[in-house]
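ugh ok fine here u go
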Amino acid sequence: MIRWLTLALGVMCFGGLANASDTVRVATYNAELFRDGPGLLLRDILKGKDAQVQAVVRVLQQTQPDILAVQGIDWDYDGLALTAFADALRQAGVDYPHQFAARPNSGVASGFDLDGDGRLGEPEDSLGFGEFTGQAGLAVLSRYPIAIEDVQDFTGLLWRDLPGHSMPVLSNSDPFPSAEVQAMLPLSVSALWAVPVQLPDDTTLTLLTFRASPPVFDGPEDMNGLRNLDETRFWPLYLDGQFGPAPPDHFVLAGQINMDPHDSDGRADALHALLADPRFQDPKPVSSGAATARDQGHISDNALDTVDWPGPGRLRVDYVLPSADWQVVNSGVHWPTPDQPGYDDVVEASRHRLVWVDLAAKPAP
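structure:
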């Protein structure tokens, strides 16, 4: 595998990133590139003056992922915003000639009162929360070719079709909000993709990516918490072959699970099972910025945190989990301390921090 080292010296200044020629850097980042209406993100990118967009570009200059799973980026039918973003990155010296995005469930009108509050047409009534179709979707950016024709898109998988699903019920055991809704509601609030990427040594790396529902913002039926649980449960079932062919090796789960193993509200059982699954390994990336921040009294190690939310505070909710057959060379969360270069950029860009892992093929036994 050939490691592209554009701006290598600058990268090493931001967190001691690997300088190896035989590694591939896989990252996940909720860049929060979403706006209040369709076309506004494209406008902000093309103007070239939006402070948040520019900060996101600088974060990617500093970290240089080879393969990047992006959450929180507005989707449009013609891919104009994603193309404009890739162009802005290219002008900044970060070239991703290969991109993938498809319509997410976020913002797609359901026609039903999904949250049971008696009102229709609210963002909460979309298949996944959103003000408009495609708000805060997903994208994959890659230096290496993406086998578009081989992408597996499970965004339309119905929640009820997940084996052992946990769809919500009321206290009288009636389905919430109704049997009619449960017959059409997809599992994913955003998207579920398995994206094959062809590395220079002819290895196929399959990127498994998603953004799970936040396990809060609901009622006693715990609809969002249960959806988060089952979205996370999907991946082991997928690898079991429950939904067709799955990659036997060289896969990486990179996305926003929206759950801390110890300190989040919600049901962490599926996350604990995922982290204990022998098919995955958890590099436990850390950052100096989170490690030296004010202690919150949380159970999880502060250094592992990947987001800083008002209210809940810092939590670990973004993950890069390589399959067990990769050698983890290095890993980290891009979160400088306030006195280090790049701190202002990560704060301006997003409440989330970019999580990266450097991988190499394991030596033959």
